[in-house]
Amino acid sequence: MLETKAKETMKQGSVFGQITEMEHEQLVVCHDKATGLKALVGIHNTTLGPALGGTRMWPYATEEEAITDVLRLSRGMTFKNALAGLNLGGGKAVIIGDPKMKNEAFLRRFGRFIEGLSGRYVTAEDVNMSTADMEYIAMETKHVTGLPETRGGGGDPSPVTAYGTYIGMKAAAKKAFGSDSLEGKTIAVQGVGQVGRFLIDYLVKEKADILISDIFEDKLKKVAAETGATIVDPNLIYEVEMDIYAPCALGATLNDDTIDKLKCQVIAGAANNQLKDEEKHGLELQNRGIIYAPDFLINAGGVINVGAEYLGGHDKETVYRQTEKIYDTCLEIFEKSEREQISAQLAAIKVAKERIEAIGRVKLSF
Ligand code: NAD
User: What's the CA gap between 39 and 74, in Å, rounded?
Assistant: First the structure.
């Protein structure tokens, strides 16, 4: 609903309309003629601390599309970071263009723009941005995280994201089935990329029946051979008999076309922005009795990892221990959703906003 409203506002050509609707603090437009860099930084909320969120590089068809994306993603980061218990606000950057444009000068110029924000925004990797890219950015700014382990960074965040997703899935199973064991449960994992692949390892250990889909057949065959998972046609993934659907590929897969087809009792996956319309589709899942583990809650392992790196004192054990808290937060959210008769998505946003408000008040006191 919120996004629909924001899109309508966008159509009317109002960037301020959109940021007012979504409650952003700042939208920064960056341009460099020499390198061809065109980037947007969305700073949604800095009450808890510097706005942390990755940079996505994408050949957006229109500027409007890029603005909408950076605004939606940065808002999501505010809730993700707040729920994960981090002292970090929410932000995100998008670079408009073909990832082939990236080179040292391009990335360092982007780094200088970030340095110019004086720490209000901290970047990290996202789609089409790697730990190696972060190294170039780090040559121009301190406000970057997600560096390779060889450079003293926390390394690839995907294994931690997968762990949090697995923990969140177990909490959702506990709510739906009365036990958090995944043994014998049929679980469909959509997308066997970085996160999906690590998630499958946990599911194998739990002796789940695993179904997998991806758009790359070779990848699928390799994962099936390694894990014993069964391959499903990407177009049929929504309608197969399953207990748990784990979206680990794209956003917006929970929509008017798919929800009717889903036969699962639980949805728990890593993909960002799974609900096409967070109010409408969140409510539809609730009305159907499907336990939905909000994506920004259970895929927070990665940001917990990069957040620890930025704030200092990164060590794997602490990061995994903090990620494990996702289990209890999920149960708290499911309970709130039931008690207040609101979707799990809205319950999670409410809890995140409550933390931001409470800590905001603390910060005002001496
Ligand atoms: P990835 O690119 O490594 O993997 C995504 C996989 O999905 C790829 O194998 C791709 O081929 C597949 N895919 C694309 N379209 C598909 C379709 N229509 N049907 C089936 N499969 C399809 O990405 P990732 O790092 O594994 O991230 C997966 C999701 O989790 C993304 O939405 C990402 O934004 C989100 N996420 C990732 C992290 C992280 O730490 N990597 C953290 C938070 C959220």
Answer: 14
C-alpha–C-alpha distance, residues 83 and 245, integer Å? 23
What is the tens place of the pLDDT at every residue in 301-353?
999 999 999 998 778 999 999 999 999 999 999 999 999 999 999 999 999 99
User: What sign for the dihedral angle of Cα 346, 347, 352, 357?
Assistant: positive
**CB-defined site of ligand 1, < 6 Å:** 157-158, 161, 190-196, 213-216, 219, 234, 248-250, 270-272, 299, 302
Nearest to 136 by CA among 46, 37, 18: 37
Count of C-beta atoms within a 10 Å radius of residue 285: 20
The three-class DSSP label of residue 209 is: strand
* Digit-coded pLDDT (tens) for 113-130: 999 999 999 999 998 999
Q: Which two tokens stand for residue 129?
A: 């941005």
325 is catalytic: no
Q: Is 122 left (phi over 0), alpha (psi -120 to 50) or beta?
A: beta
pTM over 0.70: yes
Q: Which of 5, 33, 92, 207 is catalytic?
A: 92
User: How buried is 241 (Cβ within 10 angstroms: 0-12 exposed, 13-18 middle, 19+ buried)?
Assistant: exposed
**What are the pLDDT digits (tens) for 155-212?**
889 999 999 999 999 999 999 999 999 999 999 999 999 999 999 999 999 999 999 9
Going from the N-terminus, what domains does the chain have, and what CATH number goes with each? Answer: 24-72+91-151 (3.40.50.10860), 158-300+328-352 (3.40.50.720)
Burial class from Cβ neighbours inside 10 Å (0-12, 13-18, 19+) for residue 230 reads middle
